[in-house]
Amino acid sequence: MNTQSFTYNLVAALLRAALVLAMVAAGWSIYRQLPDDEPQANGREANAQAETTLQISLRGVAGTSLDVPLELYPVDISAAQNEFFSERRPGKRLDDFLAERMEGRAPIEGRFDSKGVVTLTVKPGAWWIHTTLPGELNIEWRTRVNVSGRRQTVELTPANAYTRTKSF
């Protein structure tokens, strides 16, 4: 029996075992750093982390009053209304249909200040901004926003407006 081959085989087996252990340890280290699936014990702390401060500002709109209302919806209200009226739904009202589509999330209302800025606190996810700036030229926004993180800023400009209509 060759002693060199025995030693060689023993060292190779130990190195293989060490490699497997190192891979398991690396996987365990990554697994420990993953976030928990369970909600945190402190409800206020969990809510604070789950909400985003969304700042919406009107830019590039001169000569009009910026004190206008803004509505933030969890669904595209116009598309939901079109869907509701395109198919018959006996016994179901539009409000019930919209509540079903919003899946328990409520619309959020705000008002731009004199500088054209509104700050809202919302849950992360897809939201639709609906607002109309009245004036000689009515400018309407129906903008989809993906809200995430702790703070986010959205600028509404004439370039990203949904429609512009002349008022008579």
CATH topology of the largest domain, by name, is Immunoglobulin-like
Q: Which CATH class of the largest domain applies here?
A: Mainly Beta
Structural class comes to alpha+beta
Q: How much of the sequence is in beta strands?
A: 25-35%
* Strand line-up of the largest beta sheet: 3-2-5-6-8
Q: Please state the overall shape, judged from the principal axes of the Cα atoms.
A: elongated
Number of strands: 8
Q: Count the helices. How many?
A: 4
> Uncertain spans, ≥5 residues at pLDDT below 50?
none
CATH architecture of the largest domain: Sandwich
Number of domains: 2
The biggest sheet amounts to: 5 strands, antiparallel
Span of the ends, CA to CA: 105 Å
Helix content: 25-40%
| Annotated CATH homologous superfamily of the largest domain | Immunoglobulins
Chain-averaged pLDDT:
82
Rounded to an integer in angstroms, the radius of gyration calculated over CA atoms is 28 Å
Q: Topology of this protein?
A:
Blueprint: H1 3-33, H2 43-50, E1 52-58, E2 69-73, H3 77-86, H4 94-102, E3 108-111, E4 117-122, E5 125-133, E6 137-147, E7 151-156, E8 163-166
Could you walk me through the main structural features you see in this protein, from its secondary elements to its overall organization?
The protein is α+β, with helices and mostly antiparallel strands. Helix content is 35%, strand content 31%. The chain has four helices and eight strands. The protein has helices at residues 3-33, 43-50, 77-86, 94-102, and strands at residues 52-58, 69-73, 108-111, 117-122, 125-133, 137-147, 151-156, 163-166. Helix 3 packs across helix 4 (94-102). The longest helix has 31 residues, at 3-33.
